[in-house]
Amino acid sequence: xxxxxxxxxxxxxxxxxxxxxxxxxxxxxxxxxxxxxxxxxxxxxxxxxxxxxxxxxxxxxxxxxxxxxxxxxxxxxxxxxxxxxxxxxxxxxxxxxxxxxxxxxxxxxxxxxxxxxxxxxxxxxxxxxxxxxxxxxxxxxxxxxxxxxxxxxxxxxxxxxxxxxxxxxxxxxxxxxxxxxxxxxxxxxxxxxxxxxxxxxxxxxxxxxxxxxxxxxxxxxxxxxxxxxxxxxxxxxxxxxxxxxxxxxxxxxxxxxxxxxxxxxxxxxxxxxxxxxxxxxxxxxxxxxxxxxxxxxxxxxxxxxxxxxxxxxxxxxxxxxxxxxxxxxxxxxxxxxxxxxxxxxxxxxxxxxxxxxxxxxxxxxxxxxxxxxxxxxxxxxxxxxxxxxxxxxxxxxxxxxxxxxxxxxxxxxxxxxxxxxxxxxxxxxxxxxxxxxxxxxxxxxxxxxxxxxxxxxxxxxxxxxxxxxxxxxxxxxxxxxxxxxxxxxxxxxxxxxxxxxxxxxxxxxxxxxxxxxxxxxxxx
Length: 524
What we know:
Oligomer: single chain
Shape: rod-shaped
Strand content: 25-35%
Number of helices: 8
Low-confidence stretches: 56-140, 159-184, 190-235, 239-348
Helix content: 10-25%
Number of domains: 2
Strand order of the largest sheet: 4-3-2-1-5-6-12-7
Largest sheet: 8 strands, mixed
Structural class: alpha+beta
Number of strands: 25
């Protein structure tokens, strides 16, 4: 009996093993084959990723109260297309068509996209087409937007435009002051350099169908009118005189001789220009206000398009996104071809290096140089001495291997240095490590204030207030970090150079470079 039970149990075990082997083993093999095939597919895809086209980026979010979170996009119109370009990350193209009608141009948007990556070098030479007539710059951080405006103007004013009478530059912005900069200094300098003519926004003259949302409305509009009034007055003068400052109650800093490229002190006047959602979709800008002519075609208002459905206009201002809200804000001005085109008019605000010595290679315009020889330090100064007022500089180390000895500072002297011996100068300077120091010949004194270490691509801003005997050093990081600034008083240094109390001390900017291959450029 016991033997029979044992035989039965062994038989059951054998049958169970046979069933497991016959049924489960193929399933396990199938699973192993599946995972192996999946691994091969994933590996192949990863190997092909560098050769696949990159998808277009999503449109940047618009936050009117935080302008530093935006990216810079250009829109460029020509015969039948407009392209949007981010100089730091993306070149995004969107097909559009311009259909000419009896009253002007009408913008028609489509949804076809293509994209490719661009590097930082491309941002220094935008591929603007000479045939293009309209340029739109959408929401971006202050630094990026002003850089875009500067690049655009340098490109437009450097080529001959014999056939066109005007070019219209349209600058939509979520904060009017972000483009205006220090009390409008940026736009004033644009006008002075390009001989542009400013047109006030349409809503100041004919706000039909457009309303201003309440936010201390009277004060903000008054500030805008003051700015445009000064710009208009400036444009009517044969030689641009100093523009009177805005009232101090507006909370903006005093103007200087330089524009606000790279500044974080814009005119902080948030004014929302709102098109009511209930407005008629056939709304068109009035044809009897703020008219101008581009290529013998009439355009009006800041939109520069007639008979334009306002919702299409909103889409065109926001790269096809509806997340921006139904608001339109813009500045526009015309650039006449016959007054300065073909060459950049001389501008006293442009700084240049003093071309001297054989250890450096200077650009033809004197605004940049590269050290080419090993050996002693190179001391390269600007080409002129300043004796009064406020002078603001911006320089950048853009290539090479920086050393601890590299730096930027102000040399106090009534003449430019005759050699590169730094032990024969009196100066206040910022070295590569972020240390601020004063030098009187061979004696160097460290100042308690420090700034971040200077890296390639950083913008070093130096503002020398000769009358107040102080210098302000600011570093705008290429990484996008918040700018760092400090003010240095050189009263004690000045007292060693003059016996007259309160006398201004002449000075000029200078750059020190050690390693060959290091390149430096003026951005101001």
